[in-house]
Amino acid sequence: MEKELREKVKEAARAYYRGVHAKRKDFTYVPPSGKLLGEDDLLQLIDASLDMWLTSGRFNDQFEQDFARFLGTPFALTVNSGSSANLLALSALTSPRLGARRVQKGDEVITVAAGFPTTVAPIIQNGLVPVFVDCEIGSYNIDPTQIEAAISPKTKVIFLAHTLGNMFDMDEILRLCQKHNLWLIEDTCDALGAEWNNRKAGTIGHIGTFSFYPAHHLTMGEGGAAVTSDPQLYRIMLSLRDWGRDCFCKPGHDNSCRKRFQMQLGKLPFGYDHKYTYSHAGFNLKITDWQAALGVSQLKKLPDYLQKRTQNAAFLSNALADLQDYLILPTVQENVRAAWFGFLISVRPTAPFTKQQLVEYLENHGVGTRQLFGGNLLRQPMMTENEISLRIGHSPLLRSCDLTEKEYALLPNTDFIMNHTFWVGVFPALGEKELAKIAQTIHDFVKTHA
Question: Of the four, 27, 213, 373, 413, which is 20 to 30 A from 77 by CA?
Answer without folding.
Answer: 373
